[in-house]
Amino acid sequence: MKIIANGISIEVEDSGAGFDAAGQPLPTLLLIMGLGMQLVAWPQTLVAGLVQAGFRVLRFDNRDIGLSQHFDSLGTPNLLWEGLKYRLGMSISPPYTLQDMARDSLGVLDALNIKQAHVMGVSMGGMIAQRLTLLAPARVVSLASIMSSSGAPGLPATDAAVTRVLLSRPRDKSVAAAQEHTMRLLMAISSPGFPSEEATLQERVASSITRNYHPHGLMRQMMAVVADTTRAFELGSIRVPTLVVHGTSDLLVPLACGQDTAKRIFGAKLEMIQGMGHDLPAGVIARLLPLLATHINASAAASLK
């Protein structure tokens, strides 16, 4: 469904009954997806598992991706030039910021009249979730930052081979080329300890690209990530219960990035999953679901004291 959040059009999926058998509202879990990924990138087994655990689950397309509002009028950044500026310590002016995207997330809660929610983000979504918690701590019951980063200077960079794939372009403008390029990236960052069926992954990629394919939006989102240079120094003010989950085999956002996030947030719990890369295959979901249920339920109980 389409809603207006933070003044822009956002596509949202609302899963779960919303109320328990006694008519009491179920705890809401807001899921925030990563760079260039649509709400359909959340595995249905994860969503179903969270609903079965008793949560109302909200997913949405971030701005500039999927069926949410696109921002092509803001132009397409030159990633190579902007990356060089970043390495030289020059200032970067993104078309919009992670703070803007956090305000979008808050706007989703406002539009649906949700006063408080548990918030979970993966990769860039984890960064947005951190920003949302800093922006409106009273609205966030708990935070889960998955395969994400504090954005602190000096953290290990993305693996060089993965960077080359990330910065490459499809061989042409055909749908087949887009699918091939996306598959190449997903395979490069996949979990060696939890291999995915390639046929299943191809089917998921094809479905996503058929729904919407908007690489220029991904580039603008990437600029928002790179330009967010102060978040690490603000994370110490977060006081909501926080779970940080990271894979030991993540080549896109190395493990040290998650470790640094947990170190900077007061009382944060760090869970490292052996063999997990930068994706959510079935084996990782099986590990993640009980971690999330325990974290959310404990946070909800603590908030009532």
From TrEMBL:
<feature type="domain" description="AB hydrolase-1">
    <location>
        <begin position="27"/>
        <end position="279"/>
    </location>
</feature>
<dbReference type="InterPro" id="IPR029058">
    <property type="entry name" value="AB_hydrolase_fold"/>
</dbReference>
<dbReference type="GO" id="GO:0046503">
    <property type="term" value="P:glycerolipid catabolic process"/>
</dbReference>
<protein>
    <submittedName>
        <fullName>Aclacinomycin methylesterase RdmC</fullName>
        <ecNumber>3.1.1.95</ecNumber>
    </submittedName>
</protein>
<dbReference type="InterPro" id="IPR000073">
    <property type="entry name" value="AB_hydrolase_1"/>
</dbReference>
<dbReference type="GO" id="GO:0102530">
    <property type="term" value="F:aclacinomycin T methylesterase activity"/>
</dbReference>
<keyword id="KW-0378">Hydrolase</keyword>
<dbReference type="InterPro" id="IPR050471">
    <property type="entry name" value="AB_hydrolase"/>
</dbReference>
<dbReference type="GO" id="GO:0004806">
    <property type="term" value="F:triacylglycerol lipase activity"/>
</dbReference>
<dbReference type="Pfam" id="PF00561">
    <property type="entry name" value="Abhydrolase_1"/>
</dbReference>
